Amino acid sequence: MNIKSIKTKLYVWKGPVKTADTIFATPVSLLPFQTDAQAPYRFFSWLVVEVETTDGHVGIGNAGLCPDVTKLIVDTRLAPLLIGESPLHTEYLYEKMYRSTVAYGRKGAVMAAISALDIALWDIKGQVMQQPVFMLLGGRTKEYIPSYYSRLYTRNLDDLQAEASHYKSLGFKGMKLRCGYPLTDGLAGMKKNVEMVRLVRETVGDDVDVMLEAYMGFNFPYAKRLLQELEPYNLRWVEELLLPDEIHLFNKLKQYTAIPLSGGEHEYGHFGFYDLVKADALDIFQFDTNRVGGFTQAQKICTLAYNEGIEIIPHGGQMHNLHVVMSSFASPMAEYFPKTEIEVGNELFWYIFNGEAVAEDGNLQLDDKKPGMGLTLKTTDLRNFTIIQ
Ligand SMILES: [Mg+2]
Question: Domain spanning 3-130+379-388: which superfamily?
Answer without folding.
Answer: Enolase-like, N-terminal domain (3.30.390.10)
